[in-house]
Amino acid sequence: PTRTSHTRKLRGHVSAGHGRIGKHRKHPGGRGLAGGQHHNRIHFDKYHPGYFGKVGMRYFHKTKNQYWRPTINVDKIWTLVDAESRAKALENKELAPVVDLVRHGYAKVLGNGRIPKRPIIVKARYVSSIAEKKIKASGGAVVLSA
């Protein structure tokens, strides 16, 4: 509320805490990011190095499709198996659930983490060597699909 604002204390004091000499004017250095290469250069160079200029090459008409490669780690693969299949597979060592990663929105399997000692068949577009080693060590298989 108004009664608690700082201005109430400054009533009767001519410059309201902004000083007589420098004066509180509207936008003394320009609005926004004005003067980054001129009068505000020291600030930009000190706190925002590399703000101006370009770097690298331009890529015209970049299609993102060819770079689509979401990854998933080996330790998270069992979370994609639905509950009843998981229960059956954990009871019976002969059964191996098939997980199609592209259907779940992943393209590549990476090898971080541990995997249960139960067979699982993983269908993916790309598989890292460590991931493949861990899946095969658990008794499973890797199927590469387009």
Layout of SSEs?
Elements: H1 7-10, H2 41-47, E1 71-73, H3 83-91, E2 98-100, E3 108-110, E4 121-124, E5 126-127, H4 129-137, E6 141-144
Parallel strand pairs: 1-3, 2-4, 3-5, 4-6
Q: Regions with pLDDT < 50 over 5+ consecutive residues?
A: none
Distance between the termini: 65 Å
- State the order of secondary-structure elements, H for helix, E for strand: HHEHEEEEHE
SS strand fraction:
5-15%
Structural class: alpha/beta
Largest sheet: 3 strands, parallel
- C-alpha Rg (nearest Å): 31 Å
Query: How does the overall form come out from the CA principal axes?
Result: elongated
What's the total helix number? 4
Helix content: 10-25%
Please explain how this structure is put together:
This protein has 146 residues and is an alpha/beta fold. The chain is 20% helix and 13% strand. It is built from four helices and six strands; from the N terminus they run ααβαββββαβ. It has helices at 7-10, 41-47, 83-91, 129-137, and strands at 71-73, 98-100, 108-110, 121-124, 126-127, 141-144. It has a three-stranded parallel β-sheet with strand order 1-3-5. A three-stranded parallel β-sheet has the order 2-4-6, covered by helices on one side. The chain is elongated, with a radius of gyration of 31 Å. The model has no long low-confidence stretch (mean pLDDT 95).
